Amino acid sequence: AQSVTQLDSQVPVFEEAPVELRCNYSSSVSVYLFWYVQYPNQGLQLLLKYLSGSTLVKGINGFEAEFNKSQTSFHLRKPSVHISDTAEYFCAASNGGSYIPTFGRGTSLIVHP
Amino acid sequence: EPEVTQTPSHQVTQMGQEVILRCVPISNHLYFYWYRQILGQKVEFLVSFYNNEISEKSEIFDDQFSVERPDGSNFTLKIRSTKLEDSAMYFCASKRENTGELFFGEGSRLTVL
Asked: Considering only CA atoms, which of A70, A102, A74 is closest in space to residue A3?
């Protein structure tokens, strides 16, 4: 089974600044990768996913992530954040065998005005 | 837009009591899941359900837990005799295809006193 590491529990950033949320996973074999966002008092919503093909994946709300097989990473980036991006962000990974995502601990993105 | 709905949003119960958490997955989805998130910790996989039976379960999903799809729409998680450590947010999720993305509900917060 995969394990997923999100090194940063909290990332504070000012509005309109760029942000990167880091994610590393344990195994590159047939890996599927996801980023979910959780706004306060809401469920988990898919931001983007990597299943195959281009290593740069674009998602909703201006976010993108890059699959880096050699570094087993799938970092999430946004060039200019907005106050409304304040939320909890979860990286998840699954293998081709079970397709059941394993989640990281989450990173709290706090956008300051 | 179709969504996964969960009830109750918050339940407080006494240790040793039985709890049933309810979920209505998206109507044409075939794969159903329960995850939980203890406060400040990872989102953890509990169980997956397909074709009216459990397809996978984690070590957390012991004999105190059970799942059921009693009719064509509901998917329930029962905890037979709750413990303090069962206090968590429980998320239901569903997907149409095995390789597809998970759609999550807003969660049911369980507090065991």
From this structure: A102
Residues of A in contact with B25 (CB under 8 A): none
pLDDT tens digits along A15-25: 999 999 999 99
Which residues of chain B make contact with A90, given a CB cutoff of 8 A? 43
Judge whether B76 and B6 are in contact, CB under 8 Å.
no
A66-109 residue pLDDT tens? 999 999 999 999 999 999 999 999 999 988 667 888 999 999 99
Of A46, A100, A72, A42, nearest in space to B31 by CA:
A100
Cα(A94)–Cα(B33) distance, rounded to whole angstroms? 14
Contact state of A99 with B45 under an 8 Å Cβ cutoff: no
The answer to whether B56 faces chain A, any CB pair under 8 Å, is yes
Q: Do the bridges between strand B53-57 and strand B43-50 make them parallel or antiparallel, or are there none, so unpaired? A: antiparallel
Angle (CA) A98-A33-A45 rounded to 5° is 100
Average pLDDT (B83-95) is 95
Asked whether B47 and B21 are in contact (CB, 8 A), the reply is no
Q: Which tokens sit at B42?
A: 């990872």
A31, closest residue in chain B (CA to CA): B99
